Amino acid sequence: MSLSNPTLISFLVYISVMLLIGLLAWRATRNLSDYILGGRRLGGVVTALSAGASDMSGWLLMGLPGAIYVSGLSEGWIALGLVIGAYLNWRLVAGRLRIHTEYSGDALTLPDYFAARFNDHSGLLRVVSALVILVFFTIYCASGIVAGARLFESTFGLPYETALWVGAGATIAYTFIGGFLAVSWTDTVQASLMLFALILTPIVVVLATGGVDTAFMHINAVNPASFDMLRGTTWLGIVSLLAWGLGYFGQPHILARFMAADSVKSITKARRISMAWMILCLGGTCAVGFFGIGYFQANPEMAGAVTANPERIFIEITRILFNPWVAGVLLSAILAAVMSTLSCQLLVCSSALTEDFYRHFLRKSASQRELVWVGRAMVLLVALVAIALASDPDSRVLSLVSYAWAGFGAAFGPVVIISVLWKGMTRYGALAGIVTGATTVVAWKMLGAREAYAFMAQVYEIIPGFILACAAIALVSRLTHTSETVKQRFAAADQAWRAQRS
Fold first, then answer.
1. What does the protein in this record do (predicted)?
2. Which of 219, 356, 428, 433 is most deeply packed, by most CB within 10 A?
């Protein structure tokens, strides 16, 4: 791997820029609020692009195009479900959560918000929700590290074990240094790079195949059913793919962007930018996988690496069709997708350990400087655990993401939505929702892996988890009571949201 390699130079320049942004953010980080939420001063553009980039991890350029390449447009239901879910999340949750977290003791994390929203002085809500974050986010972090390792392995021929550490190193560095501001500012750059790559690459693939008509002819020669969105699916399968959209309501790294916005008005602007960005990116990644079928059918001698691992399709197409300098920039988009989401996940885990365990149970009198450094130490700790989980070279990005996505969507999604819409929700209802959602996802996944319960594997575990969590919240909240103080605070926050929205 020579230092004169154009792709390597592009990667090094890109990583250096990210680290420089981290150093600039270091200078702007004065306390734990800055490190965790950027002092709640993100504008509309940064909120939009940071929310998008933190959402679209390595699966956007590896897992999803690989699934489209193998199964055709029938996998596109995932993209449709994500667009619907993201839009509803912006409309129903974003602005309300921004205000409710401010009124709930200026909460910095989701566990912090749950504890303050329901006056839970026992610490049980905080501990349970923080544990859910640590379990599922460690799995999620592992998926990002796998994607980064695959990138360095494929691009530079590094052994998987070495690529694992190289891929994670830069992300850990700027997250450690700059915290939330570094993550948000770098997300803005990374989101722009991802959009550029996903608009340019499918256009070049189509042209290299001979145009749209020729590409369609080659795709049809491989399998005419690739054009059929209903291919090999059942109504249950379609619902399961669309159900990915439910996950948005419970993703802590996305919800943190809403909490960090400087105002409700900024969120309205951010929603429009973020949805436009998301639709273009998902359309581009589906096009890469779909037209990649035609390209490799026309050039079968180049299809070996993609046949062995379909998740490498974007990497292989970029390496084959572009000048090495341009390829370096485009492949940096995968690194951007990995780094943007991984950094957010590391920071949320660090926040849970620092704010919800260390500060509240171990060192209530800790100084702001001490808390910031503890947060940095926790970034390293979580990263090391995630690297250990990702050490299996047979790991698949999409399967790891789907499990963590379902876990958060079912555990936190119903609690977040109902907590900002219904004043009658109680702390016992919230606790029941979190526990029911998380345990349902885990149990459904484990049982579905057994031959006797194979039918359960046909249903994405987020569906039963989300439904049962909603039922648990409603039932337990009806059977228990909440204080007038909690109801009055909810009413005040709701009134403030309505006033700021207009």
1. Catalyzes the sodium-dependent uptake of extracellular L-proline.
2. 433
The position carrying tokens 């090391």 is 384
- Distance in angstroms (rounded) separating the CA atoms of residues 474 and 491: 19
The vertex-340 CA angle with 339 and 345, nearest 5°, equals 90
DSSP 123: S
SS (H, E, C) 21-85: HHHHHHHHCCCHHHHHHHHHCECHHHHHHHHHHHHCCHHHCCHHHHHHHHHHHHHHHHHHHHHHH
* Dihedral sign computed on CA atoms, order 351, 485, 250, 183: negative
Amino acid at 382: V
Which has the closest alpha carbon to 250: 133, 126, 139? Answer: 133
Give the 3-state secondary structure of residue 42: strand
pLDDT tens over the chain, length 502 residues: 455 577 778 777 877 777 777 666 666 656 555 555 555 566 667 777 766 766 676 677 777 888 899 888 888 888 899 999 999 999 999 999 999 998 988 887 788 899 889 998 888 898 898 888 888 877 777 777 777 777 777 777 788 888 878 777 766 765 666 555 666 666 677 778 788 888 899 999 999 998 999 999 999 888 888 888 887 778 888 888 899 899 889 988 788 878 877 788 888 888 998 899 999 989 999 999 999 999 999 888 888 888 888 888 888 888 888 888 888 877 777 776 676 667 666 777 777 777 767 777 667 777 777 777 777 777 777 778 778 877 776 655 556 677 788 988 999 999 999 999 999 999 999 999 999 999 999 899 888 767 666 677 788 899 999 999 999 999 999 999 988 899 999 999 999 998 887 6
Calculate the CA 318 to chain-centre distance: 24
Task: Report DSSP state, residue 305.
Answer: H
Which residues, listed in sequence order, are joined to residue 261 by a DSSP beta bridge? Answer: 42
Q: Provide φ and ψ at 261, rounded to 5°.
A: -65, 150
Looking at residue 56, its amino acid is M
Q: How far, CA to CA in Å, does 2 sit from each of 7, 202, 334?
A: 10, 29, 21
Written in H, E and C, the secondary structure of 364-431 is CCCCHHHHHHHHHHHHHHHHHHHHHHCCCCCCCHHHHHHHHHHHHHHHHHHHHHHHHHCCCCCHHHHH
- Quote the pTM value: 0.81
Helix (H, G, I), strand (E, B) or coil at 261: strand
How is residue 77 written in tokens? 């239901």
**Consecutive H or E run containing 450:** none
